[in-house]
Amino acid sequence: MQFYHILIPFLPLAGFVINILLGKEVIRYQAHWPAVLSVVGSWVCSLLALRDVMAGKIVDADLYSWIVSGTFKVSVGFLIDPLTAVMLIVVTTCATLIHIYAIGYMHGDTGYYRFFAYLNLFTFCMLMLVIGNNFLQLYFGWEGVGLCSYFLIGYYFNKKSAADAGKKAFIVNRFGDFGFGIGVFMVFLTFGTLHYADVFSNASIMIGQRVDFLGWNVDLPTLIALLLFCGAVGKSAQIPLHVWLPDAMEGPTPVSALIHAATMVTAGVFLVARCSPIFNLSEVAMNVVAVIGALTMFFAATIAIVQNDIKRIIAYSTCSHLGYMFLACGVGAYAAGIFHLYTHAFFKALLFLSAGSVIHAVHTNNIQEMGGLKKYMPITYAVFVIGGLSAGGFPGLSGFFSKDEII
To answer: Please, which residues have CB within 8 angstroms of residue 357's CB and are 6 or more apart in sequence?
Structure first.
């Protein structure tokens, strides 16, 4: 492991600490400097990690022992393989651009330093979720991004609708996370370890095993896969736990772009792809993933076309595209699902940030009160068209290629 691998998650954590300690009294309206520089540094380190992976260098190393009890041991460690490298690039690139965008968007806000501190903490938790080499570290990052989403969605906590949206996102995700936590515990009971390499290399020992669960005798691989998928359903806003995502648009637009396009909502897809050796052992679980994804894909897109709030339209579009990704994973096309995750992160962040620019200009979210802005905002118009066409799968744009792979 190289030193720059360690810097990837911990640089944003350093930015968070600096802003929390010095932001209010010392840095104030310069709080964006430590925040932006830390994520830029993390992005550069992620590019170096991608270079290593492309050269065939896979990293699976422990930093230190976190928990030791008898033969049970959990370490803080990093796994940097092709899946991790792709996710690192997605998270750090989008986080960098959104941090820069937020400098102008949040200028003059009374909680300026607090906003950037939360963004940095969220980025740290998401990177720990992605880069960890064991289930406990994954769970730590998973709950961390859930907590940070509560802070960011409810950033305007003096506004009742924003405070309620933050609580709603936090509570709804607890339902999915409860199942996810039981799934992680079942992994430990079955394998005696939470390390990815040990679990996945021995996953075949579960074949044919059945256990009693809540009075039912169920197939062990199916049980573990479905419990893990519960967490993915909540975090990635799939039916029936999709209800938190539209209300989460009460947060500032940079929050919508970061959480609901490139990072938190894609964590569920990452989880299914990472745990593919377990999911592949259960045809039932794979069918459930595919069906939930297909239903959400259609259901959310149908809701989106009757919305008037521009951010809610994009939010439901996000639900629909996440359904595409789960559909791909459910039929075993993990590479296609991750490819769409990659392209979606960028064109959806573009749409959210463009929407924020429009909202800033016209002071409304209602699309019925917008129109004729092309001559006043030509750049925003151009990039919005590009983002919209890509989301629709227009030939030649990124969304076309990733959707084509799935379909």
So the answer is: 377, 380
With H, G, I as helix, E, B as strand and everything else as coil, classify residue 218: strand
Q: What is the pLDDT of residues 128-179, one digit of tens each?
A: 999 998 899 999 999 998 888 888 888 888 888 888 888 888 888 888 889 9
Q: What angle do CA 5, 14, 259 make, to 5 degrees?
A: 80
Q: Is 204 exposed, middle or buried (0-12, 13-18, 19+ CB in 10 A)?
A: exposed
CB 322 within 8 A of CB 289: no
Taking the domains of the chain in order of start, what are their residue ranges?
1-133
Task: Count CA atoms closer than 13 A to 339's CA, side-chain side.
Answer: 15
> How far is C-alpha 302 from the geometric centre of its chain's CA atoms?
23
Residue 31's identity, in one-letter code, is A
Taken in order 312, 313, 316, 318, the sign of the CA dihedral is negative
Distances (CA, A) of 276 to 55, 128, 279, 283: 24, 20, 5, 12
Residue 96's identity, in one-letter code, is T
pLDDT for position 302 = 92
Q: State the pLDDT at residue 194.
A: 87
Q: Which residue has the higher pLDDT, 72 or 12?
A: 12
pLDDT for the residue numbered 69: 76
What is the SS3 assignment for 76? strand
* CB within 8 Å of 395: residues ≥ 6 apart: none
Model pTM greater than 0.90? yes
C-alpha Rg value of the chain to the nearest Å: 21
Structure tokens at 171: 């509570």
